[in-house]
Specification:
This protein is mainly α and 135 residues long. It is rod-shaped, with a radius of gyration of 50 Å. The model has no long low-confidence stretch (mean pLDDT 76).
Length: 135
Amino acid sequence: MPVMDAYAPTHIAPMPSAAYAPPQVHQAPHVPPSPYGYAPHVPPPPPILPYPPQYYAPPMSRTDPQNQMATIGFVCGLLGLFPFWIGFVLCIVAIVCSGFGMQHANRLPGQRGKGLAIAGLILGIVFIVPASCGL
């Protein structure tokens, strides 16, 4: 006796060939792929523009010469009014530094710092007398 499967149909009717036709698949007409790698009919993104050039301020450089001796002489001349020996020493320093500052100002273009050197020299000379007296 042949072995029968319990779930197999007992009677299979033959299907007519006209009744079975493969399903109709509706396909869109062939569209060539986009050269950008995107789906068809999708525009590519806008091109990425480079950043605009950055303009920075030039670095601050000390190209213009400064006259530090004239500045030191002027500051010491102003501080020459300190009482007792501190003012006397500051006036001596003001006179010496202002003298060197005037020499240096004559070598610089535009004589930078010559006014400070002259002012420091005058303050040192004027304030040396009260500073030496202890006032």
